[in-house]
Specification:
about 550 residues; mainly alpha; three-stranded antiparallel sheet; two-stranded antiparallel sheet; 21 helices
Length: about 550
């Protein structure tokens, strides 16, 4: 009895020490944030200062609450994730200034165009031109900077971008609206991916609200879908929950999730498919026979919910990035393939089905691409130069005939971008490469990412080498294809290195590649999931403070 009491007392002391440590970290972050943010910007206006206080207090409270719940209540990752994600999502909507996310002008304009359609054909904004001849739309939305996009943007963001955005929340009077320069570029991909942001914009417009509210409502609905899908994935996957958790809270991921970009839905869809694949292969399906709604297929039994989620993800991903992520949908098939498919007479049927799929894929490419266009793409025009969006590009045959040119581009890319990709993944560079965070935070985020791959004693699964290789190649394929696309479509004849490839392009399939490499060792750490949740939340707090502190 005395032993049990002593053990209980010792456990409470450990919990108390951990809670004190969490409080100490929160206080240090709050204090350093105040000194850094307000000391660096003593003349900042009320909008920036008010938002800074909001971030310091709200996210600081989040750290303390999460610390308490994980230390004393040991809440599971899947249950605590939505609370943290929604709080940080709201913060990031304003933390990354409006239209600072890459290509956001195109995403916002596409969503606004859909909002016009929702409101009816009778609603048409007035159209005119400015002194430079660029189209101007007069909208019922207040814009942060009437001169965007403009080549005269500074190299770093400043407090004025936060000021105009935050202050205009209180300016509901439409007489204060300004003439908005048209964002003449719209997104050519994923028209249906903008429906929810368009609904958010429409709600603000119906209520007579201005730009800040329209932007916030649209980004919020986009972020809600992302959080819902990621929560499903974290709860579904039988192992590797920490990997998904950490990736979903990387600053670059939160930047995309709190914007109008469809990249957040791409990331969430890839996480869902990855989670479904590993669940179907390694998850506990002992009680699945009792399910009322399921479908029998040659490999396993799946539920209607799983099938609908799979189809929804397929629909979303096929609408964006020219279908480059279609290969991700092979992951459940490869992991769960039944060897009996290729036994006896069945192997001829399987080979026939695969052959038909390949032929249909080739016909699809030829039908929609056209033989002449395919030839023009491969060989280009004289001197192996072809037209890409009105700009001269290099045809693939040029790199085949002159491999030294390709090697030179790759070598120069590696030399010039040797740390940039990891820096962006860790949150060192955000926005249009104009928001910078100290390398110490980048290193901490990447360390958490690396540690999330470790397999702990309580995780029991047999991830075979063959499945690891297949999974890694499937995760790597979209990244390689995207890199090749940048080489062929964004690297022009006069460039000396591959242009356009960014670290955020790795995020959608990063969890697949990490899970393929992870889980080799087993170590024992008590309450490791709870520890990761606390550390990731603290890391997010430090990142938020750093963004505002370096403005």
């Amino acid at each position: 009895m005395n032993y049990l009491y002593a053990k209980y007392k010792y456990s409470n002391k450990i919990k108390l020490l951990r809670m004190v440590a969490v409080l100490a970290v929160a206080i240090v972050c709050f204090t350093v944030g105040c000194v850094r943010i307000f000391g660096h910007n003593p003349d900042a206006g009320a909008g920036f200062r008010g938002f800074s206080w909001f971030v310091l207090i709200v996210v600081g409270i989040l750290v303390v609450v999460v610390g308490y719940l994980e230390i004393y209540r040991e809440i599971e990752i899947g249950k605590i994730y939505p609370v943290i994600a929604l709080t940080l999502g709201i913060v990031y909507i304003a933390l990354i200034p409006a239209f600072e996310t890459p290509d956001e002008h195109a995403h916002f304009n596409t969503a606004y165009m859909i909002s016009d359609e929702i409101m009816g054909d009778d609603y048409n904004p007035q159209i005119g031109t400015d002194e430079t001849g660029k189209t101007i739309l007069i909208r019922d939305a207040r814009y942060v900077d009437a001169n965007f996009p403009d080549s005269s943007f500074p190299n770093r963001i400043d407090t004025s971008q936060y000021e105009s955005f935050m202050n205009s929340f209180g300016a509901i009077d439409k007489s204060q609206d300004v003439t908005v320069r048209a964002i003449w570029k719209t997104s050519s991909d994923g028209y249906y991916m903008y429906f929810l942001p368009a609904v958010g914009i429409t709600i603000a417009r119906v209520l007579g609200l201005n730009f800040s509210w329209a932007y916030a409502f649209g980004a919020m609905l986009n972020m809600l879908l992302y959080v819902a899908m990621t929560t499903y994935a974290i709860n579904k996957i039988p192992f590797g929950k920490r990997v998904l958790f950490v990736i979903s809270f990387l600053p670059i991921t939160l930047q995309q999730a709190s914007s109008f970009s469809y990249d957040c839905i791409v990331i969430a869809c890839c996480m869902v498919v990855c989670a479904q694949a590993f669940f179907l292969k390694y998850g506990d399906r002992s009680n699945r026979c009792s399910w009322k709604w399921n479908i029998e297929i040659p490999v396993i039994r799946i539920s209607i919910t799983e099938l609908l989620m799979y189809v929804f993800c397929a629909f979303c991903l096929l609408n964006v990035k020219r279908g480059v992520y279609i290969i991700i949908f092979l992951l459940p098939i490869i992991l769960c393939v039944n060897k009996n498919w290729f036994a006896g007479r069945k192997k001829y049927i399987s080979i026939s089905v695969i052959s038909v799929i390949v032929v249909l894929a080739v016909l699809y490419i030829v039908f929609f691409g056209g033989y002449d266009r395919i030839v023009a793409f491969l060989w280009g025009v004289p001197q192996n130069i072809r037209e890409v969006n009105g700009v001269s590009g290099v045809a693939p045959i040029e790199y085949i005939q002159n491999p030294s040119r390709l090697f030179s581009l790759l070598k120069n890319y590696i030399i010039s971008e040797k740390t940039h990709i990891f820096n962006q993944l860790g949150g060192g560079v955000l926005g249009f490469y104009r928001i910078f965070i100290t390398k110490k935070i980048v290193a901490f985020n990447l360390l958490l990412l690396l540690l999330s791959m470790i397999r702990y004693r309580e995780e029991n699964y047999a991830f075979s080498v063959g499945n690891r290789i297949f999974s890694f190649l499937i995760g790597l394929a979209p990244v390689v294809i995207t890199f090749m696309a940048m080489l062929l479509y964004w690297t022009f004849p006069w460039d000396t290195k591959v242009e356009g490839f960014q670290g955020r392009y790795i995020i959608p399939t990063l969890q697949i590649m990490m899970l393929s490499f992870g889980g080799w060792q087993k170590i024992r750490i008590p309450n490791v999931d709870n520890l990761f949740i606390i550390l990731t939340t603290i890391s997010s707090y430090v990142s938020c403070v750093s963004v505002l502190g370096f403005v």
